[in-house]
Every structure is written in C-alpha cells, then in structure tokens.
User: Fold this.
Amino acid sequence: MGTNLLPYADEPEVLSQNGELIPSGSRAIQMRTEYATAMSVQKPRNLGVVAQRLMDEADLAGERFYYGWGAGKDRVEGPSIKLALAAARCYGNMAVELGAVQELSDCWIFTASVVDLETGFTLSRQFRQSKKWTVHGKFDNERKDDIRFQIGQSKAIRNVVLNSMPVGLIDKAIAQAKKGVRNSIEQYIAGNGKVKAIDVLVSELKKHGVDPQDICNRFGVSDTKALDVDQLVIMRGDVAAIFDGAEMAETLYPKMPKASASLSDLAGKAAIPEAAGQAVNVVPEATAEESSGVRTDQESRTVDAPGTNPERTALYTEVFPTLATKTEVQELAEKAKADDKLFPADRTVVDKAAQKRLLEISKGRGSRSNGGE
Assistant:
C-alpha cells in the first residue's frame, strides 16, 4: 500500500472520483491498495453531515442494522455488518481492506484493516473463525465450509470498522433503526392487533427451526402472547440477521437442555465402578448444575461435565472488541460468569478475552472511538 501526494497548485481545477471539483491549490491523496486505487481530497470531514446520512440510512435499513441475544439483564445487542458498512460509507474518506487469509487445521484467521485517508489513522484487527462452528441445515460439508468462511469474513470487517468509528455514532444509528422498527410494529398492532403481530414473527422464526418455547425461554415469558413491543423489535432484528446469514437461529435461540436422568441412573448407564471415590467422566445431556462445572458427589462418586460450548463462548468474545469502556467490559464479563451454558473451559476463554480488552482500553487503543474511560 502506498500514498502519493499530488499537488495541483497553479493548475486548472480537476474532478475527483465522486465528480466534485478539486479547487486549485488544494491537495488530493491517491491511495493504492492491493485491489484498487482510491482518490481522496483533503476536505475536512463534517461529523454532523456524517451522522445525518447514517440516521437516514438507519431509517431505511431498520432491523438490518442490529440483532440481539439474551433477555432482561442478560440481553446483549450488537450492530450488524450492514450497519458497519453503512457507517464506513457515510464516514467517507476511508479504505477498508481484507488481507490474506491464514488457514490453519482448525480455523481461518482473517485480518481486516481500516485506513482513514483524512487523518492517517490505521487499524488492523484479526478474527478467528472456527472450522467446527456448527452450521445447521441440510447442506453438504463444502457448503457448510462456505458459510463458515463468509461469516468469518463479515465479522472481521464488521469488527475493524466498528472499532474505528466514534462509538456514539454507532449507538445513535442502532437507536434510530430500532425507533423506526418500533413505529412500524406499533402501526401494525394498531391495525391488526398485538396477537397477530406476534404470530407473524413467531411464524417467521419457525421457518428457521425456532420453536415457540425457544422464544419464551429467550425472553423469559411463559407464553409468546406475553411478548411486549420491545421484544418484538429485537425479534425483527433477529429474523433479519438470520436471513442475511450474519447469525444462526440456534445461536440466537438456543435449545434448552432436556431434563437428564438422575445421577444414579447415569452411573448405571456408564457402568461406574462401585469403588468409593473413583472419578468417572460421563457425557450426558448436561443439567444446569453440571454445565456450570459444579461437581456433585453421590455415593462418594464424582461426575464431571467435560466439554466446551464454542458457539456460546463466541457470543461474549466477539462482543468484547466492540466495547469502548471498562464498565461495559466488566458488565459483560459478569454476565458470562452467571451463564450456566458455559463450561469452565469456556469461562477461562471469556475471562482472557475480557482481560485483553481491558488492557487495550487502559492503553487507549483498539476501541471504536480509539479511546476508553
């Protein structure tokens, strides 16, 4: 990548790539990247204009700008790849590049970069996409690999763009998008009733294998008819994220583990020796107690709950890089500690990701606004 300064002093006015006149005596920057050449005029960026353009796009995009998971105090919302690209487009005078992909036996490592042509700010971030990431549906193995690869590529670009943007700009865009979706839902309810609005979204999620009970578990209600408008707004974003391939339905609406047999039944099925105190590993459908890594003693036997939940872990580790303050990181880390779907090994991974993000913020780098608290 190279940069050439092209002075136009004492020369006729010329047109930039977007058709605007470059005044005599000003400078233009020619940015040659690996794939394209971008021309940018040294024209100060107007954040007010940028914000208004992004709000206009948020009104049009609606639910495609966000998605969320969890409920109540555990609810987490995030900007989509479409919001990230719209923000980059409205921000202007910047280049987004994806470098060479490093392929390992168990994952792909994507390196995405942002170059602000106006300020010279440059940021690169890596994203690891597991080749074992669960892809549901009747696809052959090659198609599933394609899906995993595309998800990793999109998330790499999304993360680096969001980390290079003013955090307030992204937050305002999400709020504006949700406001438009909420107004749309309220208008629909006024004409058709709340039950009909709920049925439409529940039916749409059913097409992606989400059961009504999964929705109830997600939002902590006993019946889908108890869903409120705010929850319907989130569901609209979820449907869009699933449709666009940004997230999997099973990630946003995980199946609750079925009630497992008693420990004594499990002991019999696993042929646990009668010798007191002998530890035996069993791999049943985990109960909430086992999933949290708590050891339960019965008749002097120890039953471990081995394994990991990489999809659940990613819900936390992928969000940490997008957080701008220590408080946000610490709050999300506390939610992870209380998440009974994470195994001990998962919590270790999440804790390391949180500590890394806290260190980055302390050093004043890597946040969406290039700063911390």
Notes: The chain has a mean pLDDT of 75. Residues 93 and 117 are 5 Å apart (CA to CA). The longest helix spans residues 167-192.
